[in-house]
Design goal:
alpha/beta, 4-stranded parallel sheet, 220 residues
């Protein structure tokens, strides 16, 4: 049996923290929160910092547009509410056409856009120590993704908000670490599921059941 110390939010069935209409489970992080830390967080979110402005903008959009507009429109609304003028886009090579459409939308909305594609710098994978047999096409120049350079290029443009368009797992982590502007994700890369990663979770009891194969998961 799992000890309470090992239980976290994913084990909760109450979700009392949202509406306070049920009760907190024994392992609840909200219940265990130091009252002073909670007060500090409330003060933080209600303050004048950029983080506070982002938190309020996101909450306002949720309240105004819940289930009414799509994420592209939400991104426009968010950018406007945080006072963003220059928007950077860190895009995957495979989503460049979609990025062109996004750029058109953002410019129609009145924003200035700057795009940095993942293969910028054209650094061959072999140069960073990857064996040739781990390239998609062996014995050819195959540029690695360069999320740090993407972030640096957008930093130089002094963007106010950066949008992640389908960067690979891990590369998105590096981009977020090095981006000076706040970063939001519009598209999550998933070549197999047409960039709809949550389908893997929705289909665990049907044709997607392989994701519950423990042996297979441990071999990935």
């Amino acid at each position: 049996m799992t000890e309470n110390a090992d239980l976290t939010c994913s084990d909760c069935r109450q979700k009392h923290c949202y509406r306070q209409d049920k009760h907190y489970p024994e392992f609840c992080a909200t219940e265990a929160l130091d009252p002073q830390e909670r007060e500090e967080l409330v003060a933080f979110y209600s303050g004048d910092s950029q983080d506070a402005a982002i938190a309020r903008a996101a909450a306002e959009i949720e309240g105004l547009y819940y289930c009414k507009i799509n994420r592209v429109e939400e991104t426009v609304a968010f950018a406007r509410r945080i006072g963003a003028r220059r928007i950077g886009i860190a895009t995957c090579l495979g989503l460049l056409e979609e990025t062109r459409t996004l750029v058109k939308i953002l410019r129609l909305a009145g924003f200035e856009t700057h795009t940095a594609m993942c293969k910028v710098g054209s650094v061959d994978k072999a140069e960073i120590g990857l064996p040739e047999n781990l390239k998609i096409q062996c014995d050819s120049h195959e540029a690695c993704c360069n999320p740090v350079l993407q972030a640096r290029l957008l930093n130089r443009e002094k963007t106010d908000l950066n949008i992640i368009m389908g960067l690979c797992v891990g590369h998105d982590s590096l981009f977020s670490r090095h981006s000076k502007a706040p970063a939001t994700t519009l598209v999550v890369k998933d070549r197999v599921l047409a960039h709809n990663s949550v389908a893997a979770l929705y289909t665990t009891h049907s044709y997607g059941g392989r994701v519950l194969d423990e042996k297979r998961l441990r071999e990935l």
